[in-house]
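Fill in residues.
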């Protein structure tokens, strides 16, 4: 199913319209740049969270997230049967000084970018399927390691695969929140200048401002 933008009342976060990003390319770029997601589902009546890297598989407008959990982690048991899970991807964040405004009747705030992706989960627990998921992660992050993985002794490799449970999330709802002061154009030029000469996170936020056209250029 095609990922839907967050327009319905049911949502996983507070999302003012000025901060909502519907651009699928921008959202997937953030997810790929910051792949360590928070995987959230309900276990025994309460939220349960695992931190795990997720691979983004995009086919046109369709998104699938690929990942795995340690078999010792009880989280995977709650994902059986096609239940819905939420994956939260956090990008850079930084303090924003009120000094970016041309007047003094302002207050500080915090800038950040994040994407929430949710949908039903399909468990992958056969050896071939789990190896496919692992090779997708290797290809994304260290392609040269693929040869070393293939050289691992067969018995040892089977034990490693037996120790994990793979999963795929069919993303049916995608929420992009890029809180970059979009609704305050009088601050954009100074904010971009401040972030552009700041920390690594601030420079990345400046890059996102430029990418989204929040640059003070009108």
């Amino acid at each position: 199913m095609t990922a839907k933008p967050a327009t319905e009342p049911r949502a996983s976060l507070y999302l003012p319209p000025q901060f909502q990003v519907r651009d699928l390319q921008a959202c997937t770029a953030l997810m790929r740049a910051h792949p360590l997601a928070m995987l959230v589902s309900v276990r025994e009546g309460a939220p349960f969270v695992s931190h795990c890297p997720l691979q983004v598989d995009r086919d046109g407008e369709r998104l699938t997230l690929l990942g795995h959990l340690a078999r010792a982690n009880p989280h995977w048991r709650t994902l059986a049967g096609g239940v819905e899970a939420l994956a939260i991807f956090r990008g850079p964040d930084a303090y924003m000084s009120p000094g970016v405004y041309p007047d003094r009747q302002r207050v500080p705030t915090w800038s950040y970018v994040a994407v929430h992706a949710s949908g039903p989960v399909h468990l992958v627990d056969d050896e071939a399927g789990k190896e496919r998921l692992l090779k997708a992660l290797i290809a994304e992050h260290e392609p040269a390691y693929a040869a070393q993985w293939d050289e691992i002794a067969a018995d040892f490799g089977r034990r490693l695969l037996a120790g994990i449970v793979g999963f795929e999330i069919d993303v049916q709802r995608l929420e992009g929140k890029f809180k970059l002061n979009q609704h305050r154009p009088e601050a954009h030029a100074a904010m971009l200048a401040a972030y552009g000469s700041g920390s690594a996170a601030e420079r990345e936020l400046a890059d996102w401002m430029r990418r989204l056209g929040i640059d003070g250029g009108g």
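The first helix runs from residue 24 to 33.
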